Amino acid sequence: MTDTHLSIAAAADRLAALYEKPFGGKPKGRYRVPEKIVRELMGRRRIYEDDVRALARAMIERGFVLIDMDSFFVVMSANAFVNYRRANEEAVA
Q1: How far apart are CA 5 and CA 2, in angstroms?
Q2: In whole angstroms, what is the distance from residue 23 CA to residue 33 CA?
Q3: Looking at the domain assignment, is residue 7 inside a domain?
Q4: Domain containing 10 — which CATH number?
Q5: What is the pLDDT of residues 57-76, one digit of tens each?
Q6: Which side of the chain, N or C, has fewer Cβ within a 10 Å radius?
Q7: Euclidean distance between CA atoms 4 and 54, whole angstroms
Q8: Chain center to CA of 11
Q9: Is 91 inside any structural domain?
């Protein structure tokens, strides 16, 4: 495993663990994190599209969704999307 994969895996582990920690007045759950902190977690000065894609894949493997909002990221449990209503062909037409 390369250093890049290690830093992405380590960042994903830290972001996943943060989901269970109490902060911001809530015991656990979804949160937003500034890009600057994600860069620091990954040990990078810049984050490129490939890095975000790799981090998002690593988060999915841990049961979370990473949403890129340009200046910050949102971390949510992948299970949050399971009960969403489903659009079928009739609804879309």
Answers
A1: 5
A2: 12
A3: yes
A4: 3.30.1370
A5: 999 999 999 999 999 999 99
A6: C
A7: 10
A8: 10
A9: no
Give me the phi and psi of 76, to 5 degrees please. -135, 155
Distance CA 66, CA 81 (A): 13
Identify the DSSP state of 29. -
Phi, psi of 65 (to 5 degrees): -115, 130
Residue 86 in domain: no
How many structural domains does the chain have? 1
Q: Does residue 93 form part of some domain?
A: no
The domain in which residue 77 lies consists of 3-81
Q: pTM of the prediction?
A: 0.86
The answer to whether residues 68 and 54 touch, using CB atoms and an 8 Å cutoff, is no
Higher pLDDT, 7 or 62: 62
For residues 64 and 12, give the distance between their C-alpha atoms in angstroms, rounded to a whole number.
Answer: 9
Per-residue pLDDT tens digits for 9-29: 999 999 999 999 999 999 999
In angstroms, the CA 65 to CA 74 distance is 8
